[in-house]
Each structure stands twice: as structure tokens, then as C-alpha cells.
């Protein structure tokens, strides 16, 4: 097999010592040189080559309490006028993010990449995309984030690399070399035909022929993203070392992209295989043993009953990923409001199994991808298209590429209702950059770029995102009269306490004051009115302190009454959380509330004498 | 007889309470006091449920209430009471107090509605799980019911004809207020459906059965109460359908299939659920063919109902012949099958839970005598009743508006009709998917059953809710002209 693999190729070699941007460039140059001469082993940088960011105190359940914020480096702030957002620009905006109250930033991949799949096609796991800056910039960014108590996680794609990755280039060139077995090669393209094709719009097979090696290689995603061969122990080691590299520098965790597809087995669809779980347990052990307090978040776009497997063994509180996204919840929230019925949400929550004690769902309304409709039935998908994607350009793959505000016709009441649901349903909320000010989208941009336009900071040139020549912007800023940067920007909204931005900030703050939102049990109350979704979150702290939060949401655009059975808290008092007004005490009869159209209430329920 | 006198010379066990009961009864939602004069009250059955010396004392009673109606005639109806008695009950039972009476051990006892007391609902549940017998009352747990549910129960508010308590969102005990001799079809059919392992009804967990003194001596069996699984977090189909119609009517320029609140998906699922219940009932309790004689009997029964309506409502009388011609479809349709059916189906008898739809309340049309309610009938009667219910949901809001407006808005009427057509059609599609036969394949029969129901509704609304009579009248006209029927 590959005798050369364990000898030096995987163990990171120390190539330089000083942590400067120039070193990155220098190393690049060296590598190009060695490529030309056909070196077998690729030398990789080590974390010891760089300064390490300050670390935050270990807090075992921080991810359960955190409000996450997904930020695209490319789209947030440009520090060097090249039209691309970069890590230094992002670092400059940390004060804003701290002011907003987010606890953890999630950065989609910022690694060196040919950018044929938004950076999910990684060319080098240990290098930053030059447009974004350097590893040193990254360390400085983490350091400054930690100084403000903000954690940072990033995407790591384990399943595949870019076809430009050195591993692949070596693998195709030299089947007998140290990387010959790093990918999944085959003489024909017939194996594993049960595995579905994910990007049906662009790919016709999971196999692609490589003329250099004269074999087919396996890829679950694009043909320029060959799948790594996790049956090769050297691949597992190399991947874990890539994780260690960033963990050593100070990162707080990873969102593991496309995690269900790591292994392939005959007679299966190649998803959620036991071998994949074994590998994740191994990764988790590395994190627990060497980097306590750091987290793994699984991206597995599957039904919750399958996703729970990625939390691992419930007997030990979970021994795979700490978190996983709850995909089906998000389209259901949209459906429930359009149908003016709680049942789309009630249904999916009733189907969501218990999760291990150390696990947490990640929930979101929108992210950098399209609003995915994989986890809905065909009928429901047609319905979502009809309701939310009236123009065919709003569709991408099987989803809808729009931002939150345009999806909701910029209706402030609905924006508030959706956000209140996001912040109060079980799971850690993940906000998407720009949605806090109600940014719009540009459906005329290709693929999913429509929801990745520059952050709107000010009404000035380029929305304050960059001072470059407007023509040089990586993506144009939104300029339409409703969502354009002159109408929608951080500066203007900062100056008005009635703005959506201030509202979001207040709600995040209220959520943090009540641990029940983050840690509490979830119990749906039902109630006589099908348009009203009401639930109780209940948490008992270590000292026995009880925190009970009641959330009542009107999914209808019309005012609604609801009678709630709160007899379990007879004689207690609900106090509304945004204003602190005590409501009448709970009596023997059902508790009557009236809600305005798309209105909601958050209450704390407590004995009458408290407060 | 004077209101407070016992029915025979002996002491009435509730004798002390007659005045208090007469004052209390009209305030109870299950008591049909509206427009009626109570002439008298007597106790026809009484037993003690609690063990001797226990507090509170729990009593079961059947009372006969006689009414004098407007026409000067009189009628007697029997009701069940479940009473608690204690010298000083806890303060939170104050709202349930009926009155005071002399206690056997001296002093006074406060007597109250027993279902309001958690201690009493807990006792009832315990007796059911123990399969206990107390005097004439037999407490029966269904075989193989799951781990016992524990009390106390809480009374359910807002119910109409019966009274229920809920045990921790897991079980519901329904006390049938109206005391009727014989096995209550609600219990009978739930038992049958439980044997079938039906997913379309809340599972039966147990029952309380008792005895009722016969009108002419002797005793007859009677169903006292029924315990079933509780459909937590559910909402009824009527309120969900109204939500959908409200959404539609607020969008005058959008059609029923274009608005966000479309109900057709739910209507389709309801159709499947009803068909499954029919199949389960047929399997559990059998079917039999309806021959020409039987069909004629059905038609005659419909014609009787028609004549009663025609006598009271001019609009019906004017079209009696046309209506009779459509009702004749029952005999024209040729041989058909009859079986046990729900008998009083409408959107309010269906509960949406997070996992699907449940059908509830198999008592049948409450105004009919028991013998009529348990007679096998065509499943088409249930289907037609559901189609009528979609009509009601579609036009309910317009009917409310029309009472204050001069002219109905023709645009809104068209939208409402579209909603009705769309959901009736979706219901039939769902029904056909499970049943294997589409009810619309037999249009004459379906139309006859639907018109029969509409005629009955016209009479009912004329008497009880004149503001709503436009709904069945409109449907009646439509069914007679044959325009816009569900079959297409």
C-alpha cells in the first residue's frame, strides 16, 4: 500500500517560526517550487509556527447558552480596499457584535480555496484564503474576539477536498505514492449506485473519470470535490491533525460540514454509516482530552430522528458532536405562519426525539445556503415554493434563496415573531449576518450569492463595507429603494431605539437573563386556538432556583384570543419580559390572553411574592 | 307534582337538596334549560361511591327533571350527578357548591359538583384501575391498558352536553350527563375500535357502568362514564377550517387554492381518517346489504323529516316536491351496504393532533332515540355530513357578516363557494384513497343524503339560530339545481 504515508507526510513539519503574513506567502512559493519538481510528501505548517490567541475559561455548557451569529468574512468588512471582506475588517467590527450580544461567531470556511464552492472546496487546510488575510490575522481575530468574551467556530469540510489540494494532485499523479490511497478510486463507475446524487442541478454521477490516473474517483458533491478515503488510517490522522492545528491556535470549535458521507459501503446509500460514527467518536475524544470546552457541530441535513445519532451515546451524555442543526424546523416555521396554524411546528417538534444531556440543537431561520427544503414532503415543498418563491429565480437546488426580511415582505411584525420563535424554541439560535437590520437580497446574482451581499454599515459609499472603487466590490451592495443600504444600515438603526436592530439586541439580552430559554425543558401547552403556539420552558438551576418561561405566539395575521391551561402554576403570576408588567395571577379557570396579529408574549412565571 | 316532593312516599335521598338543585341546574352548560320551564325534580337512582367514613362522601345520583314546554305538554329527562359532600370543603371548591343538607352525623354538609374535586376524580380513576364495584356501579378497566394513570383530574371547561376531567394530559374521563338506558354508542364503538387497534380515535382505557331504574319497574344497564386517552395539544377541525376561511376572505383577490391558509391538505387527511374509521367499524361490527325494502324505509324516514321541516319553514314547503325527487335517489341507487357509522359527524368532531386527525364523540345525533342511533346506516350519511360541514365552515363568517350588512358581497360568496368546493373535493379524494371507492361515484345517493341533512339543518336553524339559516338554505338551493356539487 502506501509505505510513505506515515513517514513524515502527515506529521506536520516545521517550516517556519515567525507568525507573519509574509511567511504564508513564502511557504506558498516554496510549495509551488516543490510541486514542479514532484516532491512526494507535502510539508505542512504547525500551530507552533504561530502566536496563539488568548483562551477563554473552560465552560462546559457554553454552547447551550450561546447566541450564534453566522458571519461571512468576505461580506462583512473590507480593511484593505480590495473589494473583499477580510479577517482584519471583521476584527474591527467585533465591538459591534459584542454590543449586539452575540456569544459565538460561526465563520464559513476561510481556508485557501479555488472558490468553486464558496470555500467549501478546500485547497489547503492550514492556510487562509489570501483575500481574507493570513493565519496571523486569524489568530489576532480570535484573540480580539476572546477579549470581548466572544467565541469563534468555523466550518471544516472533512468529507472532501478541492481537486486542487496537493493530496489530490499527488494521488492522481502517483497511485503508489504516500497519497495514492487518500481518495476513493475505482476502475469503473458502477459501485455504490444506491447513493443519491446531491447536487442534481449540476452532477449526473458520483463518479468522475480522471485521465491522469486513468481511474474514476468518488465524489458525493461536485466533481471538483473528490471524497477523501477515510478507510485509510492516514487520512483520519491527517484530518485530526488539521483540527488540532486550529484548536491549538485558539479556535473554539468546528461545524463539521457534510458529515454523514465520510464512508462508503456496498449495499448502502453511503449516509450515516456506523464507521462514520466511530470516526466522530474518535474526533470527540481528541477534543475532550486535549481541548476541553471546544465544540463540534454536525451539519447533517437529515430528519431529527437520524440526526440524534450524531450526538452519540446518550448513556454518557453524548460522545460525538455537541451540537447538530435542526433542519426541518426552519421551513416549518414559515409554513406555520403562512397557514396561520401551529401544527406544522407542533408536528416536527413532536417528532424530534430526546437528545443526550450534553447535546444541543442549533436552530436558524436563514443562513448562507438556500432555505433548504430537503426535509419536507413534496407537497410541502410545492407549497413553500408557491408561497415564498413566486419568481423562479428565487429557487436554488431544492430550496429558496432569499433573506429573512424579503421572505416576510419586510413586515416588522412577522420579523419580530420569527425572531421571537428563533430565540425561544429549544436549541441555540443561529443568526445570519445582516438579518438583525433586515437586509434584503439580490436574486439576480448567481447561485446563492444573492444572500451574501456586503453588510450594510452606513448610507455612505459601498454601504461602509469598503472604501474601494465601487466597481471593484466582490459582490454589489443592495441598492433597491426598500432594502438598499441608504435605507437599511447599522448606523441609522443604531441611532434609533425603535429600530429592528435595537429590538433584536433587547430580545437577545432578555433571552440571556433567563436560562430556561437555553437549558429549559420544552412543553407545548396546546390550547383551544389552532393559530396560537404556546409553550413553557422550565429550568432548575444547580442551586435549585427555578426559571419558568411561558411563550405565546400568534401565527395568524389577525388578532386572536387563547385560553391556556396553566393550572400547574395556580396562584402564580406571569410577568411580561420586555416591559416587566405583571399580568393577573393564574386562577382556577383557563388563562385568557389576547394577541394582536402576529403578536407574541414572553412571560416569566413565578410565585406571587417573588420579584 | 310539586317540585320538591319525592316520587313516592319514601324519603328522597336528595330531598334536602331539591331547591338548591333547581337553582343550580339552569346554570350548568350541559343542562338544556333554554326556553324551558322546570316543573319538577325527583331522584330515581342514588348510591354512595366512597367507602364508609371517608371524606368527602361521594355519591352518584340520577335525577328526573320534568319540563313544561310552551305548548303546555310535559316531558321528563334524566340526568346524572356526581356529588361530593363534606362539612367544610376546601375553599377552591366554592364555585362548585350546590347547597347544604343535614348530615347523618349531625351538623350540615356542603354538597358540591364532585368532578370539581381532585380527590374525587382521583378516586374514580383508582376504582377503574382496580375494576371495583360500588353498589350498582361497576368500574371497568379495558384489558391490557398501559401503566395506571394517576389523578387528580382537572375539570375541562367549555364543554356542552357532557362533563369531563383530564388526568395530567394523559387521560380524559367523560361523565355522560344525560342518563339513557342501554349501552352508550360512544362506549360501544370506542370498544370496537380499540379491538381494531384504531389510530383514528383516542384509545379507550375504561368505563363506569351502572343501572337505571326502568320507566315501568326493573332496572336497565346504563353507561355512566368513559375513560380514554387524552389528545394533548389538539385543536378541533371547525376552528382550523374557520381560520382558513378567514384567511381567504381577507384576500378578496386571491382564490382558495392561492392563499397561504389553504385547508385542502387537512381536508384530504380528514377524508382518509373518516374512511379508515368506516373500514374499522365495518370490520369490527359487520356490514349488511340494504335491500329495496330497507332503502324505501330510509327514504320514508327522510320524507318524514322533510314534512316536519316543510310544516315549519315556508321555503322548504315551496320546494317539497323537488326535494322529495332528489331524496328518491336513495332507492334509485340500487342495493347498497349499511354498517355502524359515526352518525353525527362534522368538523367539530375531529381533532387535529401533532400526529394526525382523531374522530371523537360517537354518541350519534343526540336528539334521536338510542334505537335509531345504533341502527346500521350508510357510510354515505357520514360523508354527506362532512360535506355539509365544509359548507358551514365556508359560509359561516359570511352569515355572521350578512346579519349586519344589507347585501351579501357576491365576490366573497364566490370565494367561499370555491373554498367549500375545494375542500369537499379534497375530502372525497382522501376518502377514496383509503376506502377504494370514491363517494362521488354514486352522485344520486350522495346528493340525497346531503339534501336530507340540509333540510334538517334548515329546520334546526330556523328554530335555534335564525341568523344562520341562510347557510343550509343556500346549500338546499344549490343541491336542487345541481350546480357546484362536490362531484366533478
Fraction of residues in helix of chain A: 25-40%
| Radius of gyration of chain A, CA atoms, in whole angstroms | 25 Å
> What characteristic shape of chain B results from the CA principal axes?
globular
Major β-sheet strand ordering of chain A = 1-2-5-9-10-11-12-16
> What is the CATH H-level superfamily of the domain at 62-160 and 230-328 and 355-373 and 392-511 in chain A?
Glycosidases
- The chain-level structural class of chain B is alpha+beta
Spatial shape of chain A: globular
Assigned CATH superfamily of the largest domain in chain B = Aminoglycoside phosphotransferase (APH), C-terminal lobe
State the low-pLDDT regions of chain B, or none.
Answer: 1-9, 483-488
Strand tally of chain B: 17
Query: Do you know the CATH architecture of the domain at 62-160 and 230-328 and 355-373 and 392-511 in chain A?
Result: Alpha-Beta Barrel
**CATH class group of the largest domain in chain B:** Alpha Beta
Mean pLDDT of chain A: 88
CATH class of the domain at 62-160 and 230-328 and 355-373 and 392-511 in chain A: Alpha Beta
Number of helices of chain A: 19
* Largest sheet, strands/sense/barrel of chain B: 7 strands, antiparallel
Mean pLDDT metric of chain B: 88
Number of domains of chain B: 2
Number of helices of chain B: 14
